[in-house]
Amino acid sequence: MQKLLYITVNSKPEEISSSKIVGRKLVNSILEKHPNIIIEELDLYKEHIPQLKYCYFESRSTIITSESLSKLTNEEQEEVKQINKLCDQFIEADIYVVAAPMWSLSFPAPLKEYIDCIVQANKTISFENEKPNGLLNDKKRIFIYVQSSGGNIPWIMRPLLNKGLNYVHDIMKFIGISKLEELLVDGTGISEIERQEAIEKAEAKIDIIVDGLDILI
């Protein structure tokens, strides 16, 4: 049975967050068409995302062994367990939906802290001849990034200005996920009319994305 991991990255309530509104509509559409999919939800503003300390790692991107773990304080041991829990949860999923706003040409900080937790040697990457190799190409997976932004970014300017979207795509490819989709809620503007128009425009693209899941499921 396949699993969908829905990750939200905004402290706003869902009803006033453009990215969450569209993200929820997308997730509900996926589940409506594929009711056997199991969903897990992760709110990065509610879930504890550990900051990565040197003492948590044996070497580059490699979490310490159980023997070394026992030498840490109880609090530090819990942090390592949480890092592994987040990474294992990510690995178990087949479909990923991340809903986040564009902040300062990127995304809110909790998403970067989360990504740092899931990029782990021997779990999501390996090092062969000192070169990294993504391990999440072991099965069909799809990553869908829902991003809201206040302005309309011309496509020709996206490589320069849409740094958060570009980074997320690059890191997913880095760990082995090759099928990537984006659902942009551009032009939410400053008025409620502009926001609703942007949401409706993005929601109109949901069916196309959901239909594209048929090759995966």
Describe the structure.
By secondary structure, this protein is of the alpha/beta class. Helices cover 39% and strands 22% of the residues. The protein contains eight helices and nine strands. The protein has helices spanning 18-33, 66-69, 74-92, 109-118, 158-161, 163-174, 192-203, 206-212, and strands at residues 3-8, 38-43, 57-59, 62-63, 95-101, 125-128, 131-134, 142-149, 179-186. Helix 1 (18-33) packs parallel to helix 7 (192-203). The longest helix has 19 residues, at 74-92. The protein is globular and about 55 Å long.
Strands, helices and their partners?
Layout: E1 3-8, H1 18-33, E2 38-43, E3 57-59, E4 62-63, H2 66-69, H3 74-92, E5 95-101, H4 109-118, E6 125-128, E7 131-134, E8 142-149, H5 158-161, H6 163-174, E9 179-186, H7 192-203, H8 206-212
Parallel strand pairs: 1-2, 1-5, 5-8, 8-9
Antiparallel strand pairs: 3-4, 6-7
Helix pairs in contact: 1-7
- Order the strands across the largest sheet as they lie in space: 2-1-5-8-9
Task: Report the sheet-strand fraction.
Answer: 15-25%
**Secondary-structure element sequence?**
EHEEEHHEHEEEHHEHH
> How many β-strand runs?
9
* Class of secondary structure makeup: alpha/beta
The number of helices is: 8
Which stretches are low in confidence, meaning pLDDT under 50 for 5 or more residues running?
Answer: none
Query: What's the overall average pLDDT, rounded?
Result: 91
Task: Work out the helicity level.
Answer: 25-40%
Report the biggest beta sheet as strand number plus sense, adding barrel if it closes.
5 strands, parallel
Span between termini: 10 Å
What is the radius of gyration computed over CA atoms, rounded to a whole number of angstroms?
18 Å
| Global outline | globular
